[in-house]
Every structure is written in structure tokens, then in C-alpha cells.
Specification:
Structural class: alpha+beta
Largest sheet: 5 strands, mixed
Number of strands: 7
Radius of gyration: 21 Å
Helix content: 55-70%
Number of helices: 18
Strand content: 5-15%
Shape: globular
Number of domains: 2
Amino acid sequence: MKRIAISQIYLNLLSDYLDKITLAHKPEPGDVVEKEKCLEAYKSKVDQSEIENIIGEIENETGNLAFGLKVGEHIHPSDYGTIGYAMMNFPNLHQALGFAAEHKHMLNQAFSTELKQKGSKYHYQTKNIMANHRLAPLVELDYASAIQLARFFVGAQRSKGVKLIQVNFQHEALGDAKDYQRIFDCPVHFGQATSELVISKRVLGMPIRSANPQMLQMLLRKVERWKKDMLSQASFSQKVLSYISSQKQENIPSISSVADEFSISVSTVKKRLKLEKLNYSTLCDDVKKNIALKMVANPVTQIKEIYINLNFASSSAFNRAFKRWTNMSPTEYRRSKGQDENQTNKKQYKQ
């Protein structure tokens, strides 16, 4: 499978942070940020390897990966370009966060994000569809950015009312407990099945002080043009992968569903993927592998639930595929990760 693409925005944010900690760049009095460049940065993409490399550089400088929170807590809408400015013109936080969830995959193909309502609570969930643990700092950056932007959007007088109920992370803590508590000001859990922000309906109903309907429509038209440009420039396999990743469930869509999505025949889907030396089963196999590894590593998830979600015909079919991927059975893999032994410690992380 081809490498995934991530927005230039992340590279800019991480590069700026690296400059600060290495003192590599000291702003001169005459330094001026190019406004148009900032606005359009969200449209440019870089290979995931560039992001991984700069994450590695920051880790070498600091000795850890706990920098996403620090970058996120100083975020400004302009850092996300047109996407950020659009968010600050929605009527309320609910619509702004829903917009962010819908467009997250356009900024970072490694992540699939969804805003779900469960009773009086909302769950802003992020799935690392490539199961790439090196990108965990970006999840923390996104979540710290979300709370920082929400407080900015409602204004200083109401910012204290922006309170989270709970934060869950799939990964282990990357930094000190005090940093998570200071930024999120709520219980923070690690080693969970899903990375998510849990937010009350009341908080998401808070109005955005700078909302401008006319400005919002202008910005949304600009984002729609960008999305169309992206789709026209992307390879067919990238479009298919984007469709697979956008699905709300763990279920991998059938090739006939892909054909329907792109209004072409199944045979045309196969031919177009073959031109890129790929086939649909290989594409899905890679996605299934990453999802399966993540789900099997979580001791709370039943194996039966996993193979059903991933559309395997039986447990034996899933076991054969898993052994092909890892040379281990799902049970052996789970045991090798030490999940059973450390389950109690991973259930909850509180200040």
C-alpha cells in the first residue's frame, strides 16, 4: 500500500516547535507571516515519512514524545488555515466540532474522526487507521488543539465553561500526568479501546462569539473547491482508500460498494487498481491487518467481535489471516503484548 499523506499544517507546526526548542530560529523584528501562505497551507500534503522524521528529531532533542500537548495548547485558528477560520464562524461549538470531524481525514489520512452522540454526551473519536504508534503525538496535538480552540471561540468570559467530561487515549501516557491535567482539566484514561474526547451537550451548545454566516459560506465554498481539487488529483487507489477509511463502522466495504460509490462497474474497479499494480483484496488486507492488530491488543475486545467486524467468514479464516500477518495466533499476539498482565494499570490513568 502506498504511503499516506498528511497536511503540510502538521509539518509547519512541528517544524516551528523544533525551531523553538533548538533555538534554530530567532524571529527578527521585521518577520511577517505570509497570510495567504498560512491560509492555503491546509491544501498541501507531505508524505508520512516526513512527519515521522521530524517527530524523531523532536524526540532526540527532548528525550520523549510529550510535545503534542505543548504545541496544541498554543494553537490559533490561523494555524489550520481556511479550515480554522471556517470553524470560528459556525454558530456553535457543536457545528464547529462536527465540521472538524468531517474534514480530519482530509488533513491526515492516517486518522478517521467521528462525532457521536450517546445520550446527553458527545464522543469525538479518533481512529488511527494505520495503527502507527509514532503518530500518537498528533492525536494529543489534535485534542489539545480542540480544547484550546473551543475556549478561544467562545471568548475569554465564557472559556472557563468549556469543560470536558473525560479524555481517553489508546496509547500509553507520553508525558507527565500534570500536563494532561492542566490542559484537559478532567480524568484522562490511557490504554483504552478508543481515543476520544467526551463532551456534554451543554458545552457543545455554547455559541461562538465571532460567528459570521456570510464569512462562513465563503469559506465553505473554498473548502469544497479544495476537496474537489484533491479528489481530481488523487490516484484511484488513494480515492478508494479514502472511501474505505471514511466508513463509520469497522466494517470494510465490499468491492461492489466501491463500484457503486464511484459509479463504475466492479470490473472497472479491478482494472484501475491493476494499473497501479494493486488489487482490492490487497488494499483491504492491509487495512484489516492494522485494525485487527489494534483490536486484538485490547484485552477487552472479544476475538469473535473482531472477525465479525472485519467481515471474516469464520474464526478459522481470521486466525489464518492473523497468522499470515504476525506468525502468531490472535491469542498468542495478545499475550505477547502483555495486555492480560497489565490490564488493571491500563484501564485508567488519573491525576
